[in-house]
């Protein structure tokens, strides 16, 4: 009986499993038929039937087809405050650096809206050919030497050649002093090629130099360069001649002709009478001594230099043996026979 019961249970289990498998297959067939029916879509089919997005193609770099050469203008003359072209110490004319067109970050020349080239400025130098920013170099300003000449007097060999000179020189390079028969003296407070040093040439309000034995002096009411005496460096250009009979004064930045001869500034107008500058001591006239009384004379003494005060020589008697004094000096109307001739023996 136990065998029968066991067999019946096994058969029941097999039947149940077969029924479950048949039910699962029926549901699968129903779901597939529903999917194949018209009007029905699944998410998978929707995704596959959607239009594909356009594929972005890789774009290459735009090729530059514009001009590649920058515009460079011609150099312009470098002018001074008076509108004249500057000259370097070697006598060559000076020019400003030529203006160049700027480049952008890609190294291409820059043009404005009107297709005109844009040039470099002091603060904008643009970029180089490789797109590197050009930085302006900082230049240390040179030390300037201002000089002011107020109511100056120029003398050559003691004679006044120029008077009441007035110059305000912002930066002293060279002074030019032309004297007929001597040449053009180029003077500076700094050494330069061909110059000879003259110690203490600049001394307070006076500039003193000597050229071929001729003393040249420039005096001013104001201090010229500094409190301490400084050497003057002098070179002479004997080949340069001006059509002038009197000395000429000037200043500039070159040591070769042509030199610059700027005019002196006007003197301040004076309400009262204008006094002429005093003559140098060595050219002042020497006053004659008072004449001696009749019958007396002055013994010639040592001759003084020009400008020195003459030594007052005493009056002595023409006839020492008579011991004539000014009080008893014979009158000019008296007869010459009244005075005996001097004894040759005495």
Short overview:
By secondary structure, this protein is of the alpha+beta class. Helices cover 12% and strands 21% of the residues. The strands form 2 sheets. A 9-stranded antiparallel β-sheet has the order 2-1-7-6-5-8-4-3-9, with no helix packed on it.
Plain-language structure description:
It is a single chain. Among the domains are: 67-140, no CATH class; 147-252, no CATH class; 286-333, no CATH class. Helices cover 12% and strands 21% of the residues. It is built from 2 helices and 11 strands, in the order ααβββββββββββ. The strands form 2 sheets. It has a 9-stranded antiparallel beta sheet, with no helix packed on it. Strands 10-11 form a two-stranded antiparallel sheet. β1 and β2 (159-169) form a beta hairpin. The protein is rod-shaped.
Q: What is the number of strand segments? A: 11
In percent, how much strand structure appears in the residues?
Answer: 15-25%
Helix fraction bin: 10-25%
SSE order in H/E notation? HHEEEEEEEEEEE
Question: Are there runs of 5+ residues with pLDDT below 50, and where?
Answer: 39-50, 327-339
| Radius of gyration of CA atoms, rounded to a whole number | 56 Å
Main sheet: strand order: 2-1-7-6-5-8-4-3-9
Which whole number gives the mean pLDDT? Answer: 74
What's the story with the biggest beta sheet? 9 strands, antiparallel
Structural class: alpha+beta
Number of helices: 2
Calculate the terminal CA-CA distance, rounded to whole Å. Answer: 212 Å
Task: Sum up the overall morphology in one term.
Answer: rod-shaped
């Amino acid at each position: 009986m136990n065998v029968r019961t066991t067999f019946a249970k096994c058969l029941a289990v097999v039947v149940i499993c077969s029924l479950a498998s048949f039910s699962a297959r029926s549901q699968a067939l129903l779901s597939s038929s529903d999917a194949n029916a018209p009007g029905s879509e699944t998410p998978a089919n929707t995704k596959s039937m959607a239009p594909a997005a356009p594929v972005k193609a890789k774009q290459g770099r735009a090729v530059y087809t514009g001009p590649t050469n920058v515009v460079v203008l011609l150099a312009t003359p470098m002018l001074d405050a008076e509108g004249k072209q500057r000259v370097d110490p070697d006598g060559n004319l000076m020019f400003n650096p030529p203006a160049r067109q700027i480049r952008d970050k890609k190294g291409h020349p820059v043009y404005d809206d009107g297709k005109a080239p844009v040039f470099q400025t002091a603060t904008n130098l643009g970029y180089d050919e490789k797109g590197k920013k050009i930085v302006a170099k900082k230049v240390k300003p040179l030390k300037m030497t201002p000089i002011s000449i107020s109511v100056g007097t120029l003398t050559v060999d003691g004679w006044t050649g120029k008077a009441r000179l007035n110059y305000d020189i912002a930066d002293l390079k060279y002074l030019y002093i032309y004297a007929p028969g001597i040449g053009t003296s180029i003077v500076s407070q700094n050494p330069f090629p061909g110059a000879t040093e003259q110690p203490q040439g600049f001394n307070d309000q006076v500039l003193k130099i000597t050229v071929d034995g001729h003393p040249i002096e420039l005096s001013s009411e104001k201090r010229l360069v500094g409190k301490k005496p400084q050497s003057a460096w002098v070179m002479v250009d004997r080949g340069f001649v001006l059509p002038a009979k009197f000395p000429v004064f000037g200043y500039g930045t070159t040591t070769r002709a042509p030199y610059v001869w700027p005019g002196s500034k006007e003197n301040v107008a004076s309400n009262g009478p204008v006094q002429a500058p005093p003559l140098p001591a060595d050219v002042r006239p020497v006053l004659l001594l008072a004449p001696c009384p009749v019958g007396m004379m002055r013994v010639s003494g040592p001759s003084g230099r020009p400008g020195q005060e003459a030594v007052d020589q005493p009056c002595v008697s023409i006839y020492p043996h008579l011991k004539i004094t000014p009080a008893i000096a014979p009158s000019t109307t008296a007869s010459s026979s009244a005075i005996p001739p001097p004894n040759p023996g005495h």
